[in-house]
Amino acid sequence: MGVKTYNPNEQLPYITTRREAVLAWGRKNSLWPMPFGTACCAIEFMGVVSSVFDISRFGAELVRFSPRQSDLLIVAGTITYKMAPILKQIYDQMSEPKWVISMGVCASSGGFYNNYCTMQGIDHIIPVDVYIAGCPPRPEAILDAVMKIQEKIENPKTKPPAQFKVKEPKFDY
Ligand code: SF4
What we know:
elongated, about 170 residues, alpha/beta, four-stranded parallel beta sheet
């Protein structure tokens, strides 16, 4: 935000700022999350919306289950290859600008499900802005991820990390 000063003629306060700063301020404080919950992490996500942790303190309490009404995708749980095209389609349907949080080891790396049907990380198909470690992560970790997203929105020059490219795992059993 800019400098608060006074118009000497009218004695009215006014503020100067950049349009991008105002837009970023609005986006940052009104995130609309869409939880893509497939397993136990989704239950943990429910805690963050409760009065104990109260995600509305960060302006992100308006949870939506429609990609067209959301700008923050929170993938919480195991993603199988059968589910992957649905997740990709949901991401594609969200309007720009949009951000993605990968919650828990299952969404981020497949976790301990190193088998033929489990995707070894959602960053194989969609870009991820913030990864949350843990199985399951605590609600505080989700709040921390939301704050990291807010920092990114405020500093748009901070580019999201390059997609984590790994080869598909080879199975020797
Ligand atoms: S990371 Fe742990 S808590 Fe989260 S979905 Fe996987 S097994 Fe469940």
